[in-house]
Amino acid sequence: MLNKLLIRIKSILLRRRPLFRYSWRYLLPCEGYIAVHRQVMLRSLKHRPWLICVFAWSLLTWFLCWHWVVMYRAMRRFRQQAVDAGVPIWQQVTGLLAAGLGQGISGFDYYHFKLYRVAPTHWWRYVFDFQLPHFHHAFQTHPISQASRSYLSCKGIFAERLAAVGGHPVATIANVNLQEHWPIEDWLVMAPKIFIKPEGASRSQGCVTISKPEQWRFEYAEAIYEGAQGLESLKYRLPMGEYLVQPLLEHHPTMAKWQLSDKTITLRIVSAMDEGVFTLVAANLELNDDTHRRFKVFAVDLVNGTAVLDAEHCAVLGWECHEAKVSLPHWTDVLAEIELAHRLCADVHTVGWDAVITPNGVVLLEGNLNWGINTLQIVREAPLLPLLCQSSPVFLKSMS
Questions:
Q1: pTM for the whole thing?
Q2: I need a surface site. Which of 120, 231, 242, 318 has the fewest CB within 10 A?
């Protein structure tokens, strides 16, 4: 208990971003997207007044130190990209100062979101990951039940409840920890490749892939371990905790030609539920890149389940085209699976889902309460708030 408290205090003292998005405009009567951001701060402080101290500390360190450090690092890395887009250095500096000192937007977000191409009055249409989890909490209209929290936080409970209503979660072969014996040969009889992930992990962090071309082969953190000795070395490096043993999913063969890697292709989908009305908000297709980055992400059209692969990715694949539109197989099944899963936690306003389209259909991996925001906007080169306001009246009401 004391250790957790010390870790929390350390994270607060070393925080490098403001706790909330801020502006002098909050002091005036305001509406529209500015009102949405003000609601995030006011509702958070209303429920947890002690956050005002954390907010004040984060503002102090941001103004005195971290804004300037981040601005310098961001300019050094991305200024030429903006110059090539026709934005002179002086305009970048004024934009970085307005974003950082005026609203708490970091230099990296300024460049990643290409805010130098957007009028400052339109920056309020964007939401940033540093506003999490407070942004999600502020628009949670009902208290989240313990059943829903367990459903979304525990992968075992998630799979059990979803399967009980006819859904398709990923099967779990075993639950293990680092102290007990791992019957790997028995696991490999059930599936040719095994995926081991921490019970509380998000995405593929801290996960291990097991196969047996000749002897046991383990892939973890971009390193490869082999045989019984490799297993001992691997266990020594893994964090303590409970792990789920699952078959490694294969994506649909139609999708295999969309990437050079053999790693599983994943869909990231956000849905909203308000008073029993289900709505899809956005979806991304994540293709794997084994060369210089982990994922190549493309926006998915929610109406017809298509994505457009850009010229850069087509060139990597060796396709002779500037861009290519691809259609996701089983798209209607994806939508049905997401709706079924969200109705099991209908008191949660918005959820981010991870899914895989396999040769046999759609498999849902997990749901996330604190789903990430940045990638959804960077991929579309468009702000998220207008999309959220279209998807749920909860956001629309907060604009007035």
A1: 0.91
A2: 318
| Structure-token pair, residue 178 | 């680092």
365 neighbors 168 (Cβ within 8 angstroms)? no
Angle between helices 67-84 and 89-103 (to 10 degrees): 140
Residue 203, domain CATH: 3.90.70
Q: What is the pLDDT of residues 165-187, one digit of tens each?
A: 999 999 889 888 888 889 988 99
Only one residue has tokens 């209303």, namely 46
CA 242, 245, 250 angle in degrees (round to 5)? 140
Last residue of a domain, one of 227, 247, 267: 247
User: CA–CA separation, 81 vs 92, rounded Å?
Assistant: 11
- Grouping H, G, I as helix, E, B as strand and the rest as coil, residue 285 is strand
List of long-range contacts for 8-15, beta carbons under 8 Å, 24+ apart: 12/54, 12/57, 12/58, 13/57, 15/54, 15/57, 15/58, 15/61
Domain that holds residue 55: 2-138
Residue 204: half-sphere exposure toward Cβ, Cα within 13 Å:
21
Strand partners, 88: none
Where do runs of H (alpha helix) occur along the chain? 2-13, 33-47, 51-61, 67-84, 89-103, 107-112, 134-138, 146-153, 155-164, 184-190, 227-237, 253-256, 311-317, 331-343, 374-380, 385-391, 393-397
